[in-house]
Write a structure and sequence with these properties.
21% of the residues lie in helices and 25% in strands. It has 278 residues and is α+β, with helices and mostly antiparallel strands. A hairpin with a 2-residue loop joins strand 2 and strand 3 (50-55). The chain is globular. The protein binds zinc ion. Zinc ion (ZN) binds at residues 252, 254, 257, 259, 274, 276-277.
Length: 278
């Protein structure tokens, strides 16, 4: 998502901001507007479900997407050409930044059905001590995510189910419930297994498939099971490639396996797995 976002908004200048849900902005609206208007967006960065916009004035504009939030970049004059923008899921615009680059005008809209999203602004130097961002675990697609780092990150979660441990954002950032089912399936490990019982050979597979599954998801622009949309409002294509998530009662996709996909509640969320091969 962040690549698509950067293509549209990097080097744009913020010229205005509008909101219908002021509560989501974590500082007085006038002050917020004063601080961001005139600044340029250097680049966008994603950390778990947070989008960080690095601004030319040394500030970071943080958008917490939460459950249902997503950003849409709409170029003036081209909105009508895009059928996705008319879809209901893209119609819950709570906040909007007007951006300019040369003579191009872009509205960066924050669509958020449930209004759980939050907007913050802080100095770049405060990033390392930020209450949520500083606690986020390792990014699984960064070079820091080694097999050792994975095991080290989850070493205090021995009694947790693998499924829940993978979703702990303070250990590994950015794995949601869909991927927490898909990764154990690819690794051939039951998602309900206690972390402390996982063997070294299984850790290797979990590590390898965490990277593979997430890379594939990025390539297919995410999964649109819920409200995820890219900056053009388009659903991701990864849901067609899901092997277990949302497939309860269907046949296992692993070659030569006759099993059926089961659903099981683990810590309030539904994990999906094959009862035969996992
Ligand atoms: Zn199977």
């Amino acid at each position: 998502m962040v690549d698509g976002l950067n293509k549209k908004i990097a080097a744009c200048q913020i010229v205005d901001f509008w909101t219908e849900w002021e509560k989501a902005v974590k500082l007085p609206l006038n002050q917020f507007k004063k601080e961001i208007i005139g600044a340029k967006i250097i680049q966008a960065e994603r950390r778990a479900k947070n989008i960080l916009l690095h601004l030319s004035n040394g500030k970071i504009l943080l958008v917490h997407l939460k459950m249902t939030g997503h950003l849409l970049a709409k170029e003036a004059g081209k909105v009508k050409d895009n059928k996705y923008f008319q879809e209901k899921v893209n119609g819950y615009i709570r906040h909007s930044w007007r951006l300019k680059k040369d003579d191009q005008v872009i509205d960066l809209d924050f669509s958020d059905l449930r209004k759980f999203g939050k907007i913050e602004l802080f100095d770049k130097s405060d990033l390392v001590t930020h209450p949520t961002l500083s606690k986020l675990g390792v990014e699984p697609l960064s070079k820091d995510f080694t097999l050792e780092k994975l095991r080290e990150s989850l070493k205090n979660k021995k009694k947790s189910a693998l499924y829940s441990a993978l979703m702990d954002q303070n250990k590994i950032a950015g794995i949601g419930n869909i991927y927490a089912s898909e990764i154990p399936f690819e690794a051939g490990v039951n998602p309900a297994r206690r972390v402390g019982t996982i063997k070294p050979s299984e850790w290797e597979k979990i590590h390898q498939h965490t990277i593979k599954v997430l890379k594939k998801a990025v390539k297919h622009r995410g999964t649109s099971d819920s409200d995820y949309r890219d900056v053009d409002g388009a659903p991701g294509g990864f849901q067609k490639l899901l092997k277990v998530y949302g497939r309860e009662g269907e046949s296992c996709k692993r070659k030569n396996c006759q099993g059926k996909i089961k659903r099981q509640k683990i810590g309030q969320r539904s994990a999906f797995f094959c009862e035969e091969c996992q």
